[in-house]
Amino acid sequence: MTTDHLDRSGYTTPLAVRALWRQAPVREFTTDAGERRWLVTGMEQVRAVLSDPRFSRAEAGRLGVTIGPAAVFRKPGINDLDAPEHTRLRRLVAGAFSARRIRSLRPRIQEITDDLIAPLVAAGPPGDLAAALCYPLPVTVVCEILGVPHEDRERFRGWADRVLSTSAYPPEEALSALTSMIGYMAELIDAKRRDPDASLLQDLITARDEQDRLSEDELVTLGCGLLLAGGESTATMLGKGLVALMDHPDQLTALRADPSLVPSAVDEVLRYATLGFRAYSGHIRATTEDVELGGMSIPAHSVVHACLPAANLDPAAFPDPDRFDIARDGGDHVAFGHGMHRCLGAQLAKLELEVAIGSVVAAFPGLRLAVPTEQVPYKEGFLIAGLQALPVTWRS
């Protein structure tokens, strides 16, 4: 893969992402293996790739393109499928992530957040917000929704780290973790069949056993996929969002003065801060026929990479896109994707970010990074470039 937009760990750098929209919104690039592919960076064109059925997720799989960790499951996951198979699986879980049901979770998410922050406040500065809040909050929430026992959460996080690894762990260790995760999920499903509860996983079991709406492999894969998706991405965005706020003290001051800005601040975080997927790997499709896009002719059976971070910095969509502005009307971003594959847990992730960011700003007066921004440590060798730690200090 070309290296002009990569840092030493293989991730798209923020500077490079911000430069991509200055180039052609649709263009060819060459991988290290000599493959010709297409990179799409304009907002209008990215939305087209993610919503037009001629850009197919399943076709990319048929061409042998690996699409994230789900590609190593025994069966294609929900994100590897096109309609109607994708639609069938999505409908099974969509109800659990409805706006009404997500809103009902706010008191519990607030309670979890308060419990996680309290020891840090009691201990006094400095502290590590990544370990104390950013990682445990989303994992706790998604495990409660799915019905994963509390005592198993740390074990699952160890597996998730390895499954989401690109080079941090040897391939055989990642595969072993995936095998363990699949085995654990199968055992948990059996346990819930013997002792039913009110979890989302129980709803999926009912859909499998009583309605025959999915296979056993699909049931296990969905459970694993929801756990994976519900943890690392939200943790990463929370950490990077807090870094962005502390790196822009005027915005942090404005948010502290007016907490009603929290929802728009979250949207700006999602627009401005990239998850850090490895270059060109995040949203991959392949064309099922010749397609005209952005003034370019893309041949059938071409692999296309939609760069969401660059689209979120497209000046045609967001004036002065390099400026971090929590009062911006930035809700039209594509941080959660677009079209049929838009992230099912988008509303849940936004709620967690709203509760966590609002609570941190209120609980830690004078909050600031304890190290220079460039010294905040990031995890290397993972699909998502999360924070290894978030060292902060504040007025006690």
TrEMBL record:
Record keywords: Heme, Iron, Metal-binding, Monooxygenase, Oxidoreductase
InterPro entries for the chain: Cyt_P450, Cyt_P450_B, Cyt_P450_CS, Cyt_P450_sf
One Pfam family linked to the record: p450
Oxidoreductase as UniProt keyword: yes
Keyword Repressor: no
Similarity section: Belongs to the cytochrome P450 family.
Official protein name in the record: Cytochrome P450
Organism: Actinoplanes flavus
Classification of source organism: Bacteria, Bacillati, Actinomycetota, Actinomycetes, Micromonosporales
